[in-house]
Amino acid sequence: MAQVLGKWVKLAQMGTGPGARSSHAIAVVGQKAYAFGGEFSPRVPVDNKLHVFELETLTWSVANVTGDIPPPRVGVSMASIGEVVYVFGGRDSTHSELNELYSLDTRTNKWTLLSSGDASPPHRSYHSTTTDDRRVYIFGGCGVAGRLNDLWAYDVIDGKWIQYPNPGENCKGRGGPGLAVARGKIWVIYGFAGVEMDDVHCFDPVHGLWTQKETHGEKPTARSVFCTIGIGKYIIIYGGEVDPSDLGHLGAGKFTGEVYGLDTETLEWKKWEDGPGSDNHPGPRGWCAFGKGCRGGQEGLLVYGGNSPTNDRLDDISFFTPLY
Description:
Largest sheet: 9 strands, mixed
Helix content: under 10%
Order of helices and strands: EEEEEEEEEEEEEEEEEEEEEEEEEEEEEE
Oligomer: single chain
Low-confidence stretches: none
C-alpha cells in the first residue's frame, strides 16, 4: 500500500490570545482564523469574545464587534462561506442547549441573529457543521431529549432552513461526529452514540437519499470529537476520543493523535504518516477547534487547543498539510 505523507507545523503565537480551552470553535476566512466559545473548566463557558488569529503574522487580537453578540457557550460550531462566519447552537452556563444561528460579517465585525426558537433546528450542542458555497449544514449533537441524527441546511442566499430526510435507525443519534462535504454529498463520519462509532453515512441532496458506506483499507478505530475537513475527494480526520471517561465530560477519556484520509471515490481509508512524536506534532487530543485553511498556497487543517489525555486544556495551534 502506497504511503501517504503529511506535515505538521506548530505555529508561534503573539498578541493576546484566547488561551487554553476546549469545546470551542474556529472558522477560517482568508488568512484569518476566528475563534469563539469554549471552556477551561468542564461545562463552564469562558467568554463570548471574538478572537482573531492572523495566519501570516501569527498574531492574536480581540475583535471590536457590534450587533447581536452571542452569549458565552460551549459545544458550539462555526463555519464560513465567503467572508461571513456562521455560528450555531452550543450550551450555555445553565447547561441549556441552544439553537440560535448567528452570522458575523468579517468585513464589518458585525454579528446578526439570523434565526432562533421555532424558526431554527432543535436545540443542541456538540453537533457538527460544514459548508459548501451556499449552505451551512448542521448534523446531530446532544439535544434536549438525547442525541440527534437529523441533518439541516441553512441556505445563505434564500435565508431559509432546509430539513432533509432522516437517515433512519442505521445512523444512530450521536454527538461529536465528523461532517464534511465531498463530491457534492454530505458525509457523516463516526461519533458517539452511547459507544464510540465507526460507521460512515452519506447523504445525496440532489436525490434526497441516505446511504451507509462500507469502507476498507487502514480503517480508523471508532472515535468522536475529532477534527474533520474535506479537501477535494478526501475527508481528513485527526485525533479524537477513542475511549470515553467514566466521568463523562468531566473527565478525559483516551485520545488518539493519528491522521487518516478517506477517499470518497474508492471508499478506502489511508493512514497519513505525519511524524508522531516530533516537536511539531500536536499529539493526542479531542474536543478541539479546527477548520480548513490555506498556508503557503496549500490547503490543510488548522487545529487550536482541545483537551488532553491528562484532562488539561491546551492552547497551541498547529497546521497539517497533506502531501499527496
